[in-house]
Amino acid sequence: MTVALRIGGHWHSPRTHTPPVYETKVDGGMGDASFSLLLPSDAVPLGVERDALVEMIEDSQRVYLGRINGIDPAAWGIKCRGIGTDLDEVPALSSPSGSLTRDIAVAIATAKAAPFGVTINNSRGVSGVAMGDSSEPVMVGHLLELLAEQETARWGVDADWQLYMRVDPTEPQWIIHAPDLGLTDEGGAPYNMYAGRYVDYTTGLYATAYSATPTGKIKCANVDLTKRGQMSPLNASIILNNLAKATRDTPTWGSTITVTPSQIRTMGMQPADPSSVLGGHMARMIGLSASQQAVAGGEYLDVVLSSVVRDTGTDALTIAPVGSLPTTIEEALAAIA
Amino acid sequence: MSLHELTLGGLSLDGIDSVLTDEGWMLRVKSAASGTSFGTSEAVVSAVDAMGADGGQARIDGYANAVTTLQLQILGVDATALAKGEAAVRRVLPDGWGAPVDLLWRAPDGQAPASVRVVLTGVLGSPSTGSEWDRDEVRLARTFPLVLTHRPGVRSEHLTITAALPPSATAETTVVDDCTSATGWTARLTDWSTAPVLTAGANGLVVEHPPSTGPKMVQFTRAGVVNFAALPYLVVEARVAGDSRVARWEASGTLRAPMVSQALSDGFTRYVFRTSGVASQFFVMRLTGTVAAGGGGAYIRKVSLTSQHSATPRQSARIINVGGTERTPGTLTVSSRNGTTATGLTLIHTCPDDGTGYDPDLNRWVTSGPAQVDDVNAPMGGWRTLTDYLNAVVPWHTFPAATSYQIGALVRSDTAQEVTIEWSAWSWIDSVPTRQVLGERIVTLEAGKLAWVPMGRTTLPTIQARRGGVMLSLNQTAGTAVKVGGWYAFRSGRDSALTVVDSPKPRLFIEVGEGSEPGSWMIGDAADGSDAYTLPSGIKSPGVHVFRAGRVASYVVTQNTNDPAVEFAHHHWWTANAADDGLTS
Q1: Which residue of A28, A194, B83, B95 lies most exposed, with the fewest beta carbons within 10 A?
Q2: Between A and B, how many residue pairs show a Cβ–Cβ distance under 8 A?
Q3: pLDDT at residue B192, rounded to an integer
Q4: Which of A8-17, A28-37, B138-147 has the highest mean pLDDT?
Q5: A234 pLDDT above the threshold of 90
Q6: Pair type for strands B372-374 and B43-49
Q7: Mean pLDDT across the stretch B45-54?
Q8: Which residues of A touch B541 (CB under 8 A)?
């Protein structure tokens, strides 16, 4: 259960630091982490400096990978950022001295070469070209965001240095008993269908496209896509469908909840291995009251976890749903832009 | 006359050894005075809210330091001697920065084992200012409260060494009894006056009895003297139902616990006992568990003597008895038998021995997949080239605790390459796979070098089940097929740990520190550890091994050396008084 810590390649015995707290996120993979070294302030711990690599290893398996973001000198408090942020620090270029690119595979290859030397691997072969012909400089991380939004997927870097791009799961992997879930009825925009005005690329005239017709009560809203320039009817409906997906009329909860390992279980009702519950997984919230069920629209609520914060001391997990659901159409449009 | 002893860092505070020193002072503890007490530790208890239940689950997370206060009186021939005595006491008091100091107490009967408290800080308080103060000064006596903060619990005086098992020689096995006939056997149930019926069948000898509440003890006795000392190990396969299954061999009048227990596929467990120090005698075996009729009886089969205790020469299991009643620090040593061959890539796993026969090796459960090409140099006794799914079905009862497991494999690639290996864990009920946990590892391998690849972590079994098992699979999805030389499900979670070290030396020392001491993972040449050092690049995973009183199972995999010597040195730890001296237990 004890997590070993390696900072800048140097082992720190588990008894010389507080149990680390780390986060995994649906977007980006590794999130923030924090711990304190139990050392007097005049001690010199090996490897501890800003941007030093931080690895957390449990029974030989790496469960967290990040970099030191800040050091509190008073108590040797260490704050870390996820390894995925390495890609926010490198421009997306076709070659180190070349031009901007919107092809992610090319951008990653450049980032891995000198002088950037990013050590994140793309063995899974994440590829794709971000739509548009913008000449704005973008960082690799931002390019991945554009691509992910375009494909309604999520990107991240796992604890194994590997880049990934994947869609949200549709099947829950965990069951969480959460009778005290604070559900809010304000989750998502209250629309489930969109009608969009756009400029057709063959005729140059205004036209209207629709997202797919939802089941149940139709709650339709109008959006203006004309600012994006000319496009095909297919592209317009793709954007509108993604918009409907992003603003799906799902209830969410207001604040994070903290669960112990006995409250979060596998679908086979075994206690979850706390290191296996990651941001991006889908969980089924059960134990809802009748009023909560009325909000959730069923006996349970399936949610994609946006953030899972694990305290390795108590193995308590603090989880948040994909709660940053856009609540206005403007936000939703910005998110899929 | 009281024979008690009380010393701090070798300085006698009271008792039979407290005599007038050359400087003209002596010490005694005013035990009658109020304010003298040995402290015991308070438990640190945490409450965890249970799932949808009333009340929380209270758990002890650990113990806080304890404080012992002694009213220490210094007696002297003159006032200068009093001050010199005070200085002598102060010199032995630890300040918490340097090494701790032992406070040893032996009870007044002079026979009881001494109890040692490990003192972190010692403070001499204000001298007594009571009504007796002026008279005490005239009588040349000063009394100080001595406040000692020490680690929780007490330890026995001496270090307990758990020696290595005798080396496994070339395989040699003598069958004592194959248990196909009940002739010569008798059985007894401890709490029933009627002798139970003993029958012989396909599964060996069995005692069945109508269901009863609670576990029962069944004793099997075989007539005929056997020379157990002929070979170093006795192997018995036995089966009894129940959550707290216990098997004991009665050797020379005492009950011996097994040093290896390994679950077999048909509900039997293979128990290995040491035979050292046992003369020629009858074979007597006791099984404790629930006993019922209709297949739920107590079984015994295949009693044999052998020279080898491990499943394969490079995968060694043993059970270590940890004395006392508390968690203890200690040093676990793994050495190659000749003291010169480097152990190479070494995995050291420890976990509590819960009697379930849990064994991390997955190869012995393989049901389908690439054939094994035998090679004594492979950790699991052969190599399986990962050209197809490698599947193992492990019975549910070897994973009783529903805890986390670390799945991993020892693999070797002939060429330097990046490979992708997929792993999965399915529940396997009535030969139908149901719930799946799936992951993959992308890893870069060096040419011809054995590598430990941690695949993933999951709860096992993946579903709640009292039948069937778990199907674990490996499959390579990218790269030239690698050779699997061992694959394991190491128990994780509370009190379990895994250390992985790639060592160019013949010995490995894992020191579990006291209290908050960091502990160490060192390698070296000398048996006593005098030339040991830490090789940071060789440490792949420093596990925090936990040794609680009771039985701890260790499982060691070595790359280069057969049947390594696994030794453990520890002190017995107790609550407030040591019940043994650590040498005799």
Answers
A1: B95
A2: 125
A3: 60
A4: A28-37
A5: no
A6: unpaired
A7: 63
A8: 4, 57, 59-60
Tokens of A65: 């990978």
Q: Which pair of tokens denotes residue A311?
A: 């305290």
Q: Do A59 and B541 touch (CB under 8 A)?
A: yes
> A276 with B403: CB under 8 angstroms?
no
For residue A327, the model assigns a pLDDT of: 47
C-alpha torsion angle, residues A41, A44, A47, A49 (rounded to 10): 50
Candidates B100, B96, B75, B77; CA nearest to B13 is B75
Interchain proximity B463–A263, CB inside 8 Å: no
pLDDT in tens, B347-393: 999 998 876 778 898 988 888 899 999 898 899 989 999 999 999 98
Judged by CB atoms closer than 8 Å, whether chains meet at A15 and B518 is answered as yes
A140-150 vs A104-112: helix crossing angle, rounded to 10: 160
For residue A154, the distance in angstroms to the closest alpha carbon of chain B comes to 18
Q: Residue B402: which of A57, A260, A271 has the nearest Cβ?
A: A271
Contact B419, B390 (CB under 8 A): no
Q: Is B530 strand, coil or helix?
A: coil
Report d(CA B65, CA A137) in Å as an integer: 59
Distance from the A249 Cα atom to the nearest Cα atom in chain B, whole angstroms: 29
Cβ contact B544–A38 (<8 Å): no
Q: Look at B418 and A59 and tell me if their CB atoms are within 8 Å.
A: no
DSSP secondary structure letters along B257-270: PPSEEEE-TTS-EE
Residue partners of B34: CB distance under 8 A and separation at least 6: none
pLDDT digits (tens, 9 = 90+) for B262-287: 877 777 888 888 877 777 888 888 88
Answer yes or no: are the C-beta atoms of B441 and B420 closer than 8 Å: yes
* Alpha-carbon torsion, ordered A274, A279, A281, A282, to 10 deg: 100
Q: For chain A, which residues lie within 8 Å of any Cβ of chain B, measuring from their own Cβ?
A: 1-2, 4, 9-11, 13-16, 38, 57-63, 121, 123-124, 160, 162, 177, 179, 260, 262-263, 266-276, 287, 314
3-state SS record for B287-337 = EEEECCCCCCCEEEEEEEEECCCCCECCEEEEEEEECECCCECEEEEEECC
- Reference B461, options B502, B542, B405; nearest CA is B405
Q: Looking at beta carbons, which residues of chain B come within 8 Å of A11? A: 536, 539, 542
The interface predicted TM-score of the complex, written ipTM, equals 0.82
Radius of gyration of chain B (CA): 29
Count helices and strands in chain B by DSSP H and E runs: 2, 43
